[in-house]
């Protein structure tokens, strides 16, 4: 179907360490449509982060088929994977992963510098837009070490959305944040989703998972549940997107 | 700060990592060993006071001609007396003329190093004869009884240690001489003399230029410095030059310490370069070890954080880190000291090859009090440098963040800056050391392979010194040469005999000359040329190629003849490369000869008269038949047609058959004599080469270590960038560019410092600016490649991880 952004078919991931075979993912099949907000949940070690790495082309599967935007990306070259990550995927990590030597603007600009089709002024415009969306324009010349955790994650969100990717992959985006900052970041994601972004988020925080419209439960490397969340999830939030940027 | 419990802990940590411990101790041993060795070696060579009382204020004075320093008795007798009269700030004055003496005994004549001295010279060295006495003023008068004081070795070897030696006489230079004293064992002042006689020259009774040449000796009065004396000498000599332009044209004088006088021209530049290189190498070694300790500190940052959490004071943490530095530097230093001691022992035999005769008596290399002092200074210095890096790293770090994890950002910036500083330092140090060392090595190679203009293969040389007493007329001297040449020519084992005042490769007299038809404004404008007397076949026999005209032949023989052969360098300089055949020149400073015009009959290839790297290497030469201008000091060169021992026996027999009082001395192959010219710089060059090799190893491993560390610390960053879409190529290029930037920042000052040092050494070694430029480019390319390679390898390794693994990398 035309609006199927991600299609996984019988995906497997096996780690081999000193003759020990660990099945991180076993025959995972799922589809994510454009505009969907999906959360992947499960206990520690269940394979949810491995699944997100495969979705983000940060790792390759041991078996199975992976289609992104209709293209089979299971066996593409490293260079092609890098190109797709750059243009089609935006990452938000649990530990922010900002580059300490770069200031906020440079961090947000970083993925854009890998694209040849953007001029310097275009990149600056896109950085400005992204920082405005997360209300971090006033901190453009600050370094990550000068920011709070919540601010760092907002910069990471700006970096993820700066290049207008097809999908945003978030790995425990609130894991390193206090509850207030966590809610602010989640509100930001809600806002992005409401603007049409496709989001896939790994979390073991039920409150965060509830904000998605679809929840996939993973256990021992297998999808054990894939369910739509009731549309009234937003009612449980205690902070709005507008309030979020103020935190 | 330093706690015994921490010492035990440091020992345990080091023993748990034997590879790391061995590596760091080895690096420190190499760095400290080489530096201690070089400092001790140079101190003995150039700074250690002679082993006499009050030697620290003992200076010598010699002449300087057109800015070039001469040593070993080059101050004119009359100049010396003017200096003695006018110089202020001197407590005691004396003078000595180093020469040689033929001493005849029952088993034939032998040549000894001798010194003609003012009577107070032994007092200047605060040394009294072991037996007998020194000279009286009466014995220093012309016409007094001939007396001599002999050295301990001569007494033991020549006189069998006879206690009655003081009542005996020997023939010295053909004159019966009474022995009046024996000096103590080990006394060879001024350099390697074994027999001392009064100088007996009274400047008031002689014309300027007729007296001998001396080395002035003096004790500085309290409060006077060498600089004061040198300033006064410039003024005094300038006045003399104006008053006596004919004899003093371009002449000046200088004062220096005794050991420094042996360093010659450019000695200060050479010493400075050696010291700088030694210090830089030590810093390089310290930075490497410091970096290794820093890596360990980073590995243990969690442990350190726990200690802080448990209340460890910062001083205690630094103390704990310092213990490792103390142990590594101390053990490395002790090993280095042992290696340096061995090296100094070996050096003793190597330095014996620097001079024709015995090495200078104060060259006693070994572990002395200075070596021990420098050992402690260096070990303490390296402890501070190596301990400083990890201490700096750990000071002010956010340990709470370390404990909470996920804090690489907080420490990353500081680490990154430190790593960049380390790489830049390594680049700077290695470039400086390598450029300087390469200039020295290349300069030595050029000097060693220089064409002196003569064929040295299978040629044996020997010195013969005619005595003034026996050969008091030019006729007698000329006849001796003719007889010796004809007899040797017909001797078994010898062919192609050449007898000259000097051979190519030897320094020779450089008087002023005048070319007929050229106008000279005043006495100062006469040029100088090397002036050598040779037997008529000498140039041909030595293989000095003829360019124009002819060699000397039998028609040039005779004191009444006036012919010369000049080198092509003489023609280029004075005849604009036109044919000089038939044109005439005159030796202005005649040294006893009757001044006359000399007709040029031939032009030969350029010969180097002196060391091939010295400023005189390009000086032109004038050759005169020895039958026209006989000399007392002769050198015989013989082509060998049999074993060397056969030729030596034949030479000695022939000499004895002519004059039993004449020994042949300094008998050695011509090539050995030539090699001796570069023995000193060859040795220095080997030291530089060793430093260069160690510097390359230390710098390469150090730069690789730091870069590898940097990349490892940035593995997560690499993961992030790849997650954001950076291709492997992009990441690689980015890291290579970072490496290149660090290389440029460290390289520019390194190139300037290395270029400066190289230029200094290049002046000394006559390597030229082109060679310095080429060397610098090659070294820059080598170190640049090392940096890029050291960046590329760990980056490639980091890129082999999947991005997801890189993101989780700890």
From TrEMBL, chain A:
InterPro entries, alphabetized = AAA+_ATPase (IPR003593), ABC_transporter-like_ATP-bd (IPR003439), ABC_transporter-like_CS (IPR017871), ABC_transpr_LolD-like (IPR015854), MacB-like_ATP-bd (IPR017911), P-loop_NTPase (IPR027417)
Report the GO molecular function annotations: ATP binding; ATP hydrolysis activity; transmembrane transporter activity
* SUPFAM superfamilies xref list: P-loop containing nucleoside triphosphate hydrolases
Q: Which PROSITE patterns match?
A: ABC_TRANSPORTER_1, ABC_TRANSPORTER_2
- Known Pfam families for this protein? ABC_tran
Coiled coil regions, renumbered to chain: none
Gene3D superfamilies hit by this protein: P-loop containing nucleotide triphosphate hydrolases
Q: Where is the ABC transporter domain?
A: 9-245
Q: Could you tell me the keywords of this UniProt record?
A: ATP-binding, Nucleotide-binding, Transport
Q: Name one GO cellular component term.
A: plasma membrane
Q: Which family does it belong to?
A: Belongs to the ABC transporter superfamily. Macrolide exporter (TC 3.A.1.122) family.
The molecule here is called: ABC transporter ATP-binding protein
Q: Which organism is it from?
A: Aliikangiella marina
From TrEMBL, chain B:
Q: Where in the cell is it found?
A: Cell membrane
Q: How does it sit in the membrane?
A: Multi-pass membrane protein
- The scientific name of the source species is Aliikangiella marina
Which superkingdom heads the taxonomic lineage of this protein's source?
Bacteria
Domain MacB-like periplasmic core, residue spans: 21-234, 434-639
Q: Membrane-spanning residues where?
A: 20-42, 269-294, 322-344, 370-392, 421-446, 687-707, 743-762, 768-793
State the PANTHER family in the record: ABC TRANSPORTER PERMEASE YTRF, MEMBRANE COMPONENT OF TRANSPORTER-RELATED
The residue ranges of the ABC3 transporter permease C-terminal domain are: 276-393, 690-803
Q: Which UniProt keywords apply?
A: Cell membrane, Membrane, Transmembrane, Transmembrane helix
Note the Pfam families from the entry. FtsX (PF02687), MacB_PCD (PF12704)
> What's an example GO cellular component term for this entry?
plasma membrane
- Name of this chain's protein: FtsX-like permease family protein
What protein family is recorded?
Answer: Belongs to the ABC-4 integral membrane protein family.
For this chain, one GO molecular function annotation is: transmembrane transporter activity
């Amino acid at each position: 179907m035309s609006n199927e952004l991600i299609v996984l078919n019988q995906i497997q991931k096996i780690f081999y360490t000193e003759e020990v075979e660990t099945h991180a993912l076993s025959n995972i099949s799922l589809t994510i449509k454009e505009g969907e907000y999906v959360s992947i949940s499960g206990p520690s070690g269940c394979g949810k982060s491995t699944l997100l790495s495969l979705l983000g082309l940060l790792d390759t599967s041991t078996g199975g088929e992976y289609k992104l935007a209709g293209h089979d990306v299971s066996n593409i070259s490293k260079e092609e994977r890098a190109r797709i990550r750059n243009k089609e995927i935006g990452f938000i990590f649990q530990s922010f992963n900002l580059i300490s030597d770069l200031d906020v603007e440079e961090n947000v600009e970083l993925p854009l510098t890998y694209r040849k089709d953007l001029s310097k002024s275009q990149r600056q415009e896109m950085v400005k837009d992204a920082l405005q969306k997360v209300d971090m324009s006033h901190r453009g010349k600050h370094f990550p070490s000068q920011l709070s955790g919540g601010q760092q994650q907002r910069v990471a969100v700006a970096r993820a959305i700066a290049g207008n990717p097809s999908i945003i992959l978030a790995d425990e985006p609130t894991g390193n944040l206090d509850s207030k900052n966590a809610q602010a970041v989640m509100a930001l994601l809600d806002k992005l989703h409401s603007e049409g972004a496709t989001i896939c988020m790994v979390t073991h925080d039920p409150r965060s998972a509830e904000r998605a419209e679809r929840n996939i439960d993973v256990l021992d490397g297998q999808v054990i549940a894939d369910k739509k969340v009731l549309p009234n999830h937003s009612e449980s939030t205690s902070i709005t997107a507008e309030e979020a940027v103020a935190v | 700060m330093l706690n015994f419990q921490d010492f035990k802990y440091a020992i345990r940590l080091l023993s748990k990592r034997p590879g790391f411990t061995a590596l760091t101790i080895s690096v420190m041993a190499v760095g400290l060993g080489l530096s201690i060795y070089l400092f001790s070696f140079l101190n003995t060579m150039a700074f250690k006071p002679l082993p006499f009382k009050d030697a620290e204020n003992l200076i010598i004075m010699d002449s300087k001609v057109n800015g070039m320093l001469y040593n070993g008795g080059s101050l004119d007798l009359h100049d010396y007396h003017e200096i003695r009269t006018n110089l202020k700030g001197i407590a005691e004055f004396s003078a000595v003329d180093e020469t040689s003496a033929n001493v005849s005994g029952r088993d034939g004549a032998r040549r000894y190093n001798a010194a003609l001295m003012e009577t107070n010279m032994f007092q200047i060295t605060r040394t009294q004869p072991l037996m007998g006495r020194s000279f009286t003023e009466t014995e220093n008068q012309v016409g007094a009884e001939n007396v001599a004081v002999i050295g301990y070795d001569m007494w033991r070897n020549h006189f069998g240690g006879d206690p009655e030696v003081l009542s005996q006489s020997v023939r010295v230079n053909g004159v019966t001489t009474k022995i009046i004293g024996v000096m103590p064992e080990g006394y060879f002042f001024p350099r390697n003399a074994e027999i001392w006689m009064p100088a007996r020259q009274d400047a008031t009774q002689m014309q300027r230029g007729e007296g001998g040449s001396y080395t002035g000796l003096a004790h500085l009065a309290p409060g006077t410095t060498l600089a004061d004396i040198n300033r006064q000498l410039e003024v005094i000599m300038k006045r003399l030059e104006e008053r006596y332009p004919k004899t003093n044209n371009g002449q000046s004088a200088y004062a220096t310490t005794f050991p420094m006088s042996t360093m010659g021209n450019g000695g200060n530049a050479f010493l400075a370069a050696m010291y700088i290189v030694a210090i830089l190498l030590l810093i390089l070694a310290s930075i490497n070890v410091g970096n290794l300790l820093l890596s360990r500190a980073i590995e243990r940052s969690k442990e350190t954080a726990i200690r802080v959490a448990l209340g460890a004071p910062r001083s205690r943490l630094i103390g704990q880190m310092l213990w490792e530095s103390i142990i590594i530097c101390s053990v490395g230093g002790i090993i280095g000291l042992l290696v340096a001691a061995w090296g100094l022992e070996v050096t003793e035999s190597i330095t014996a090859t620097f001079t024709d005769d015995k090495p200078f008596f104060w060259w006693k290399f070994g572990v002395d009090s200075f070596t021990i002092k420098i050992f402690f200074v260096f070990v303490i210095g390296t402890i501070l440098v190596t301990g400083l890096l990890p201490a700096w790293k750990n000071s002010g770090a956010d340990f709470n963040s370390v404990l909470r994890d996920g804090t690489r950002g907080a420490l990353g910036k500081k680490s990154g800056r430190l790593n960049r500083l380390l790489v830049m330092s390594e680049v700077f140090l290695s470039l400086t050391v390598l450029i300087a060392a390469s200039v020295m090595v290349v300069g030595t190679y050029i000097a060693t392979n220089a064409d002196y203009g003569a064929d040295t293969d299978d040629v044996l040389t020997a010195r013969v010194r005619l005595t003034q007493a026996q050969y008091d007329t030019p006729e007698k001297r000329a006849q001796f040469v003719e007889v010796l040449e004809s007899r040797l020519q017909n001797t078994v084992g010898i062919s192609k005999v050449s007898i000259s005042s000097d051979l190519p490769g030897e320094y020779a007299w450089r008087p002023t000359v005048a070319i007929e038809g050229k106008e000279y404004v005043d006495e100062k404008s006469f040029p100088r040329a090397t002036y050598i007397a040779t037997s008529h076949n000498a140039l041909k026999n030595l293989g000095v190629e003829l360019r124009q005209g002819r060699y000397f032949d039998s028609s040039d023989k005779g004191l009444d003849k006036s012919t010369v052969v000049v080198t092509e360098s003489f023609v280029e300089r004075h005849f604009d490369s036109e044919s000089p055949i038939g044109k005439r020149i005159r030796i202005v400073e005649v040294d006893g000869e009757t001044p006359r015009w000399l007709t040029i009959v031939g032009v030969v290839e350029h010969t180097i008269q002196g060391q091939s790297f010295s400023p005189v290497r390009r000086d032109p030469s004038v050759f005169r038949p020895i039958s026209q201008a006989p000399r007392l000091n002769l050198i015989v060169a013989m082509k060998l047609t049999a074993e060397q021992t056969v030729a030596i026996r034949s030479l000695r027999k022939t000499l004895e058959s002519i004059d039993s009082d004449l020994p042949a001395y300094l008998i050695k192959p011509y090539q050995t004599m030539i090699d001796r010219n570069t023995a000193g710089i060859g040795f220095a060059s080997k030291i530089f080469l060793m430093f260069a090799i160690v510097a390359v190893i230390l710098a390469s491993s150090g730069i690789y270590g730091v870069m590898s560390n940097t990349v490892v610390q940035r593995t997560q960053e690499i993961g992030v960038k790849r997650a954001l879409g950076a291709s492997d190529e992009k990441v690689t290029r980015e890291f290579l560019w970072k490496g290149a930037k660090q290389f440029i920042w460290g390289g520019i000052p390194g190139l300037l410092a290395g270029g400066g040092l190289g230029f200094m050494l290049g002046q000394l070694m006559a390597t030229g600016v082109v060679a310095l430029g080429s060397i610098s480019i090659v070294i820059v390319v080598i170190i640049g490649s090392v940096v890029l390679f050291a960046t590329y390898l760990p980056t490639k390794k980091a890129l082999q991880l999947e991005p997801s693994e890189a993101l989780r990398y700890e």
